[in-house]
Amino acid sequence: MNLKKTILLSLKWILICALIGFFSGSASAFFLIALEWVSQLRIQNSWFIWLLPIGGLLIGLLYHYHGKDVVKGNNLLLEEYETPTKVIPLKMAPFVLIGTLITHLFGGSAGREGTAVQMGGAIADQFSRIFLLDATDRKTLIILGISAGFASVFGTPLAGAIFALEVVYFCKISVKSSILSFVVAYFANYTVELWAVHHTHYSIPIIPEMNPENLLWIIPSSILFGFAAMLFSRSTHFWGALFSKNIAYPPLRPFVCGIILALAFYTFNVSQFMGLGVPSIVEAFSKPNEYQDFLLKILFTGFTLGAGFKGGEVTPLFFVGATLGSALSIFIPLPIALLAGMGFVAVFSGATHTPIACTIMGIELFGIEATVFIGISCFIAYLASGSVGIYHAQTVKGVKIRLYERFKRRKLDDL
Length: 415
Prior knowledge:
Layout: H1 3-44, H2 52-66, H3 74-82, H4 92-105, H5 113-125, H6 127-130, H7 135-154, H8 157-167, H9 175-194, H10 212-246, H11 252-268, H12 278-284, H13 293-307, H14 314-328, H15 336-352, H16 355-366, H17 371-384, H18 399-414
């Protein structure tokens, strides 16, 4: 390839990154503004919780009659990356946006990353038609969409770029995809800033020195973070399978779930587990949580998403990790903010099999001073969380899967 063709090809991909970054970033900016608005509306009108079954029914009907080809959500993106067949329908973006806003408006326990990633992936894949790209280049577009969506919704461009690469299996990513993933992440992140949308900030004011004693406390706490990630992943899959088995008509699943959730939230006064739960996450960095808080968030989120409500899993994972770390501060002699921050990213690492991206996210959110604590915690939680994550279609390979295959073979040999 001569120099002129190389320059033209590079300019084409930079243009694609700029377009994906702008449109995905703008979609995320609108989503974040709308999400804040519906969340405040729900807080001001507590009776909205009784409309959760109706909201669930509307989401179920929308996807059952008009969105069967996009109902898989993030798993569809991963499947198309693994085996490209057809362009992801653009309607995935408005469908998941509407579904997520309805979920949060009426009090469902869900996140926001899945929405941004699906919007980014759907928007990005449309450029395969415009620029007449082949299957290999479509894989790159899907990575760019995931990167743009994740980076823009959390304000972490480095983590967004690496997450997109790592979640689809880092070892098989091309150099081109790696470079472009970073480019589009920054385009998307700066687009959100251009729209004057702000992200939640967290801090870890005290970072102790790394010594053998502190390392000995990091290891068991990180294993617990890994177990929490495993429980979260299996909970979501369990409830999804249970609803599918017992309720044949899909729109009724979120309707029934909505009735049960509304009664539970009202009867037990546990409104802190509605929606994103960001205030509880922020509070966890300064005030010890009750030990059951992380378990209840796992229960409510798994139940909500398993039934068919829309949203993401990542912010609930932040909630689970931060509140678990906060509760552990009662027993573990490490600063509460550090334990909450470690749990924040470590549980996410275990549930998505992305320890590198989560380490980078920890650095972006909490500062480089906490790198060693964050990195060790993310990798231990990743290893301790098992081979099942929150994404059905994610291909887990490398050292971790070999470790668990060896463990399973040993169990079979013992029988």
